């Protein structure tokens, strides 16, 4: 059984990567690791919500694939499409091959080669996606109570 504490721990790790590790190293590996932590937090939250919905009798079974869980949540919970889209983008970036630009400098940028072209993620964009992840977890935690 997944717990909200596990999800919070993943976000704490991402926070540390963003505010401590990235500050001193400025490498794309840290950016990639932070994205991975956010993806794991989303996936754990999807599982936690699905478990709650199953316990409440709203669904008969939990979808085995994470992408199906995300889609199912979009059907049952209104107003979370932007968060699911954020998750899907982060997941695609996490899986994609990438290039590095200005590593070890203030403007460190990870350039992911996505199906729709190249997507650049620098520190401000990474912070935006982190904040979206935290908002999603907070929103779902309120909904679970």
Structure write-up:
Strand 1 and strand 2 (109-114) form a beta hairpin. This protein has one domain (4-94, 123-144): Four Helix Bundle (Hemerythrin (Met), subunit A) (Up-down Bundle), CATH 1.20.120. It contains five helices and three strands, in the order ααααβββα. The two termini are 16 Å apart. The chain is mainly α and 145 residues long. The chain has a three-stranded antiparallel beta sheet. The protein has helices at residues 4-25, 28-55, 66-76, 81-95, 123-144; strands at 98-101, 109-114, 117-122. Helix 2 (28-55) crosses helix 3. Helices cover 68% and strands 11% of the residues.
CATH topology: Four Helix Bundle (Hemerythrin (Met), subunit A)
Which structural class should the secondary elements be placed in?
Answer: mainly alpha
Number of domains: 1
Share of β-strand residues? 5-15%
Q: Which sequence of strands runs across the widest sheet?
A: 1-2-3
Please report the total strand number as a whole number: 3
CATH architecture: Up-down Bundle
Helix content: 55-70%
Mean pLDDT: 94
Instruction: Identify low-pLDDT runs.
Output: none
Please tally the helical runs, counting DSSP H or I stretches of 4 or more residues.
Answer: 5
Distance from N terminus to C terminus (CA atoms, Å) equals 16 Å
Estimated radius of gyration: 16 Å
Q: Describe the sheet with the most strands.
A: 3 strands, antiparallel
What is the overall shape? elongated
């Amino acid at each position: 059984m997944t717990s909200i504490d596990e999800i919070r721990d993943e976000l704490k790790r991402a926070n540390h990567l963003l505010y401590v590790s990235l500050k001193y190293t400025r490498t794309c590996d840290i950016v990639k690791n932070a994205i991975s932590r956010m993806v794991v937090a989303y996936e754990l939250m999807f599982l936690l919500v699905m478990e709650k919905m199953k316990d409440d009798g709203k669904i008969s079974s939990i979808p085995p694939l994470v992408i199906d869980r995300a889609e199912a949540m979009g059907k049952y919970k209104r107003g979370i499409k932007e968060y699911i889209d954020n998750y899907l983008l982060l997941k695609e970036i996490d899986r994609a091959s990438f290039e590095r630009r200005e590593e070890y400098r203030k403007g460190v940028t990870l350039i992911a080669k996505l199906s729709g072209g190249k997507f650049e993620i620098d520190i401000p964009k990474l912070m935006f996606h982190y904040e979206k992840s935290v908002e999603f977890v907070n929103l779902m935690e309120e909904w679970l109570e």
